[in-house]
Amino acid sequence: MIFPIDETHNPALTSWVETAQGHPDFPIQNLPYAIFAPHVSDPRPGVAIGDQVLDLRGVAGLGLIDPELVPAVQEATLNALLALPVEVRRRLRTALSAMLSSVQHERALRPLLHPAAACQLGLPAAIGDYTDFYVGIHHATNVGRLFRPDAPLLPNYKHVPIGYHGRASSVRPSGVPLVRPNGQRKAPDAEIPDFGPSRRLDHEVELGIWVAEGNRPGAPVPIAAAPRHIGGFCLLNDWSARDLQAWEYQPLGPFLAKSFHTTVSPWIVTPEALAPFWRAQPPRPEGDPDPLPYLWDDEDQRQGALGLELRASLSSAGMRNAELAPQLLSRAAASNMYWTTAQILTHHTSNGCNLRPGDLLGTGTISGPTREGYGSLLEISRGGAEPIDLPTGETRTFLEDGDEVVLSARASREGFVGVGFGECRAVVLPAPAP
Ligand code: MN
């Protein structure tokens, strides 16, 4: 098994932190990492357990973790932790699982717990580079169909994982409001563009992949080695200004339509935590080409897909004022990815490009095959032609100021304790005067 199931996944395992039992996201079987600030400042690494965050720097101070890990938890980012060999990272998970389950550590560790709701959760890593892929085949087909009804997928799609270099400086943690971007808009029937607030602001439901160990320049990561370079996963909302995008994207691809803001959930859910939820990559439809040899690995095909359900919901300012629950926009399985996360990572390095610890890769929008699973408003509203109804009587084609989008994810499997990712949330603020 690439990520072995071990005693840390035992469904009978419980924690002396009472809220871990039955917690939808963070039971003791999960143990994701984040950078948190227990007070107004001094951000540091922590691990989620129930509704609490355990201060890893404090744990190191008690001499309870591997000496190799001690320098990494003194940092204000998780880059140094991600850079450690996979064996060391796995030992930390095993040690934390033992400490948080055994009452013998309760007295020493309880003072190191902080209620998550009272903490600031920041970006988990200093992101050197961010790359966004396009592996959600239903999304690619739906969007392609809006532009090219008879040939929605371009001929390269089933041979090469498509991606573009995103903007690392504007990746922000969940909760930071999103300011509607200004930009060049040109309606199809207009002769020239004008400049002003985007009128077609959209969300995109994606998974983020945090790079663990890097690779040297000129030394591609073979696909069988890709799993050790994956440090974990988060939710990623690749906010997109569709009107800016439609005008600017040719011939070099997305630019200012995407680079104004990307939201990530703060917790890094490790591939080890997800061990029970890896499953076979769905077989390609009859007639599709086989991946080229450098993208093929039997084990990756057997268990390189993630058994996760992704959800997006929307609440308008009016809905929140009326105390109405958010409206579910979509739910879809992460297995709707045409390429696995290992194929994405290996392809990225295949030309010799070096990835570094803390780099962020996005999968691209993950949509299901039918409307209930569409991971963007562009698809849900069919390019703005079919508005959706909100419980206040409002309608939406794209996002309005005051709207809040929340992404969530859940892994579950019979016989195991399910885990979640926490929230990836942001509210839309008005554009500044152009
Ligand atoms: Mn995207």
Overview in brief:
With 434 residues, this protein is an alpha+beta fold. The protein has 11 helices and 26 strands.
How is this structure best described in words?
With 434 residues, the chain is α+β, with helices and mostly antiparallel strands. It contains 11 helices and 26 strands. It has helices at residues 56-61, 70-73, 79-83, 86-101, 106-109, 137-147, 242-248, 298-303, 317-321, 341-349, 377-380; strands at residues 33-37, 44-49, 52-55, 113-115, 120-121, 130-133, 163-165, 171-173, 178-179, 182-185, 194-197, 201-202, 205-211, 230-237, 240-241, 262-264, 278-279, 305-306, 308-315, 327-333, 360-362, 388-389, 395-396, 404-411, 419-420, 424-429. The strands form 7 sheets. A 7-stranded mixed beta sheet has the order 7-6-21-13-14-16-8, with helices on one face. Strands 9, 19, 20, 24, 25 and 26 form a 6-stranded mixed beta sheet that branches. It has a 5-stranded antiparallel beta sheet with strand order 4-3-2-1-5. A hairpin with a 5-residue loop joins strand 22 and strand 23 (395-396). Residues 132, 204, 206, 238, 362, 364-365 line the site of manganese (II) ion. Manganese (II) ion binds at residues 132, 204, 206, 238, 362, 364-365.
